[in-house]
Amino acid sequence: MVWFFNEKWVLTHFFIHRAINVISIVLFWFLIVRVFIWNENIELELPAIKGNAFFSTFRNYPVMKNFIVYKSSAGSGKTYTLVREYLFLAISYPSYFKQILAITFTNKAANEMKNRVVTSLLHLSNPNKFNDSAAIRFMLPDLSERTGLLPEQVALKAGEVLSALLHDYDDFAVRTIDSFVSRIIRTFAHDLHLPVDFEIEMDQDVLLIDATDRLIAKAGIDPELTRILIEFTESKAEDEKSWHIETDIRLAGKSLFSEDGYKFASQLKEITPAKVLIIIREVRKFHAEFRESIASPAKEALQIIKDNHVEIESFYFGRQGIGSFFNAIANGQVKLPNSRVVDTIQKDSWIGNKKDIIQCEAIQRIKPDLLEKYLQIEKLLDKEYSSFKLLELVSRNLYQLGVISAVEKELEEVKKERNVLHVSEFNKLITDIIIREPVPFIYERTGEKYKHYLVDEFQDTSELQWKNLLPLITNSLATAQFNLVVGDGNKPSIVSGTDKWSSLCSYPIYLLLMVRKYLQMPDMLSGTIMMRNC
Fold first, then answer.
1. CB–CB of 370/322 below 8 Å?
2. Helix (H, G, I), strand (E, B), or coil: what is residue 72?
3. pLDDT truncated to tens, each residue of the chain (534 aa)?
4. Which is it for the CA torsion 337, 339, 345, 350, positive or negative?
5. Within 135-272, where are the H helices?
6. What is the DSSP code (8-state) at residue 460?
């Protein structure tokens, strides 16, 4: 009875505490809206930062530009810009570097930036010794102007930051996005129902080969799986391709590691081999019935041509004309009429260059009947041709689709036995949490630890990775902290293969929309994003 009372008291206390937090947040945003939107007579004074050009106006109020997007090509100073902005924040006071997270895409880039930051701090702290370095010639005057400090003061602060950084090097947060996400996952492994001592597997082929071999070994044991594997092998043999299906299965299994595959992974679990076999039979039935439906009038047209002793070459454009079109359709081909056939109908040009009077008279006599057969075929093609071609394309991968859910099950078993997670799963795990929870609990510690986020090689971040970073950047922007994105404007993404910067001049609009979605404040952040070239 005492235990029940204590538990009830704890739960009541918890809900009261949460309610107070919610009310506080609502009041906070009410006051913000009150100041910025509803009352234009209230003047807002913000402290000026000497030399800081990140200011604009929002309804005549000064607003700090705290989200900067640097777009540039290779060799134009992206790393220099990132290091300069990092140092501009870090020299606020010695241990402030602990509140800055710089995110890169590769280990090489992370190591390079760490080296550049430490080297720049070393040079800045010893201006007399390193007076010819780029840090002294370019960065020191810039930092002095932007902070309002004398060069000697900047040098002193740089020395203090360097000393603090070297003493607490583990807090020097310059990481790849994968290492950052994996650290979060490890911290909350128990909450995510993961083994605490899991290892990270980078090579997806290692897992896929093992999973595929285990899947093939089950042939003869699972009836449904056996049937689809046999039909898959037979279909490849009929197409005169290699009957080995392991490569096709592994290729299909790679979609389980991609972001696009992740979006449909839950739906794929519902697709069993038995269901796929039913779909394959339905597709084949549709194809056969459609071929027969258009072949029937085509055969009748050919019979009319044959009965009247008309040669195919006698039609307009001969073997490229309507006679050959009827012949192809009658023999099971599904194709649209070419331009010669269309001209025959639209321009009423049925007779070719061969001026045989008997052939010309015969064609004129059978033309109405042939036109009727053609229109029947055209009507069927207009109605079903797009569906036929779509199903034809889909059917090429139906067998792989039938086993992909089985591959996923085998992959899970392999990972469980080896106690590993593939690196691609980290972002998916966090995304699932972000979708379920408006304030993701896994970011509670990180959001408090870091105030500034500097993202390098933005074009290489995938959509999933960026969405996972967004709650952190949103929280930072909501507290008016500085954030930065740097990327190569001419380099396609190595993740998606697309040029993410092709629209990055408008991409801040996309970022802003996503930020607004999190904050649910439609007009509050319209002055926070600035595009710059390095």
1. yes
2. strand
3. 333 334 444 445 445 555 555 555 555 444 444 433 333 332 323 233 333 332 232 233 333 467 887 776 666 677 888 899 999 999 887 889 999 999 988 888 899 999 999 999 999 999 999 988 888 988 999 899 888 889 999 999 999 999 999 999 999 999 988 888 888 777 777 777 777 777 877 788 888 889 888 888 888 888 888 888 888 888 777 777 777 788 888 887 887 777 666 666 666 667 778 888 888 888 889 999 999 999 999 999 999 999 998 888 889 888 889 999 999 999 999 999 999 999 989 988 888 877 678 888 888 899 999 999 999 999 999 999 998 998 888 777 777 777 877 888 888 888 888 888 887 777 777 777 766 665 566 676 665 788 899 988 777 777 777 777 878 887 888 888 888 888 765 554 444 444 443 333 333 334 444 433 433 433 333 344 444 554
4. negative
5. 140-147, 151-167, 177-187, 204-217, 223-238, 246-253, 259-263, 265-268
6. G
| AA letter at 517 | K
pTM for the model stands at: 0.60
Tokens for 479, please give them: 């507290």
N-terminal to C-terminal alpha carbon distance within the chain? 68
